[in-house]
Amino acid sequence: MPRPPLPFVRHCTVQELHSLYQACRHPVEKMRWHALWLLARTDEPRTPAQVAEMVGLSAVTVRDVLNRWNVHGPAGVSDRRKGNGALPKLTARHRDELSTALRGLPPDGGVWTATKVVRFVRDQWNVVVRPETGWRWLRKLGRAL
Questions:
Q1: pLDDT tens digits, 66-109
Q2: Which branch of life, at top level (predicted)?
Q3: pLDDT band at 145 (very low <50, low <70, confident <90, very high)
């Protein structure tokens, strides 16, 4: 038995949707705006499955986007994954201090290594990280060999 068609709540015009789609710079959100614009067009009605194939999303995802659109309007299109990552291990002040320290010699002499960065951060601020993180910081701060 086929799915009943989902309604499309017209929170804005087709032209406004097209403008929002074209202006969007976030790749995930841009695909959602594109899908909504295609669903909103009345010159060529399309199902969520047809739109999904056109924009490279699954039909389930397009239906989810449409449901969020119907309930929340334009606010439902935003990528809710933003800001859900882990907090930085170092504060901005600590990163600046680490950058300054990396310009000089390590406490035990020689050259900075990932292990020395890990030890320095642990001793200075009681922050425990893996050697991979120390290496990433070395590279990011331009101090890797």
A1: 999 999 999 888 877 766 677 889 999 999 999 999 999 999 98
A2: Bacteria
A3: low
Question: Does the pTM exceed 0.70?
Answer: no
d(CA 114, CA 143): 10
Sign of the C-alpha dihedral, residues 74, 76, 80, 83? positive
Of the residues 52, 77, 102, the one at which a domain ends: 77
Number of domains comprising the chain: 2
Please indicate, yes or no, if residue 122 is contained in any of the structural domains.
Answer: yes
Q: Are residues 60 and 97 in the same domain?
A: no
89: which 2 tokens?
């291990």
Whether the CB-CB separation of 8 and 66 falls below 8 Å is answered with yes
Given a contact cutoff of 8 angstroms between Cβ atoms, the answer to whether 101 and 120 are in contact is: yes
Greatest CA separation for the chain: 73
d(CA 37, CA 21): 7
